Amino acid sequence: MAHRKKVLLKVIILGDSGVGKTSLMNQYVNQKFSNQYKATIGADFLTKEITIDEKLVTMQIWDTAGQERFQSLGVAFYRGADACVLVYDITNPISFEKLDSWRDEFLAQAGPRDPENFPFIVLGNKVDQENERRVPTQKIELWCKAKNAQQPMSFFETSAKEATGVEEAFQTIAKIALQKGQDDDIFVPAATIDLSGAATKSSGGCC
Amino acid sequence: MRAVAVRESNMKKFERLKENEGIERRLDGFVSNQQSNEPKQSFESLKSTKIKASKEHFVAMILISQGWITPQDTLYLTILSCKKQCRRLRDGIPAQLRASWWINLAWKDQTLVSHDSSIFFHELLEDQCNIIPHLAHTGVEGEIRRDLFRTFPQEVYFDASTTQPGHIQLANILMALSKYFPDIGYCQGMNYVVGKLLLLWYQDYQQQQLTLDHEEEIFWVVAGIIKNHQLHSLWAPSMPGYLQLFDLFTNETTRLRKHIFALQKLMAQFLPQLASHLRQIGMHAGYFATQWFATLFSRVLSLDAFATVWNLFLVDGFKLLFRLALLLLSYMQLDLLQ
After folding, report:
1. pLDDT tens for residues B299-321?
2. Do B150 and A38 touch (CB under 8 A)?
3. Residue limits of the Rab-GAP TBC domain (chain B) (predicted)?
4. pTM (two decimals)
5. Is position B235 within any domain?
6. For residue A46, what pLDDT is reported?
7. Of A122, A123, A185, B275, which has the fewest Cβ atoms less than 10 A away?
8. Which of A147, A133, A120, A139 lies closest to A12 in space, CA to CA?
């Protein structure tokens, strides 16, 4: 897509609190792991420049708060997202069961043009704690197929601690999002400007 | 006569202290690496009015420092419950008075009877000194458990490599709060507020081991602000059922969203250039303000700055936090506009 000067991919990381969203983001962007991350409140983002098919792409990765009651604030961050990374913890079955609601809530709040084919990827984190695993791999495989039989979501089992599968996973989501973005550009050639201000107007009614 | 002389010299000392550490100076200290003076002018109106020095300022403190009264005395409470005194004392409080002073401010006109409150706190914890082993892995208790080691892990007091006394105290207080306010349960943000208060108490008591009594003090400070400073709806999840239906029409959920909306309006009014710049780049105020408000600035401020802000916050309430947010943004404005 030659008319695009710069490619920016906005990627949102979602999942229950404590599954390792901040760790995954930091491992991918800074190649670092620490067990001293503070619980995320609201949201935070990091950017990383990568090259995909000889094209320079800036990934803007948004790390979000995992506690459910912060979800209603998500709309401000989800707007204009190009892809979404759903994370669960393989040692915590509840975090796996919540994937559905994270996905649905994201689609409801972000309101993408083509929700059926919106680029999602699923990461089962903490595989370094294999002996405490409580979510078998088949389960996530089935879940991905159930969501979209023709084009099942990709999933990776990762360890932010040991950097297992992290690079691969983010590369994959970047590729899928880029492909999707190019498909969409055929219909909407102009670069979209995200006016988040417009989103906040609807959240009003306070004064 | 001698007593009078001592008292006068003490007063002078206090006044000097006050002049040296005026509130404006302290607010400036928050962002010490910023040297820009330009955006400040428009902010004079936002800052609290400068408090004039007066001899009555520190009556309560002098009485205490002379050993004439203790924080448990009725006289002391009477002095504290005088609104004028509250306003005058708000920009500085000696460490040994902080607990009783803050509980008093947090509970405003309602007096706490310390004896009863202590029993109450222990009942909430079911007489456990360490609630951690009793915390479930799911629900509210699971959420508290998960955040214990993710609250200021860089601080030695909360060093995440082993279970510290700080973690136990944090767990006890959060658990007691969740039982006291079952409709709030636990909201992320409370962990930082309680954690910061523990760090402050630890500093105030010269790094001596904090006891259950201190936990109880912090519990009542936070319980007080939740009840009396409209923080209830800040931390409570949006009501199920009818509010969600309501939501469809007004898009209205939590107070946090309202606060962020209000901050955006204030930014448009007081920092129009910055507000339009942020709108242009699609940066919603929720990005930075969610954390500021949900943690009542406990996550970002240094311990001293936090103590100063809370002295004011406990008197002025949430509007102080809006002022602070605008002040911080005004200091960062030049950098943000680049």
Report:
1. 999 998 999 899 889 888 888 99
2. yes
3. 92-317
4. 0.80
5. no
6. 95
7. A185
8. A120
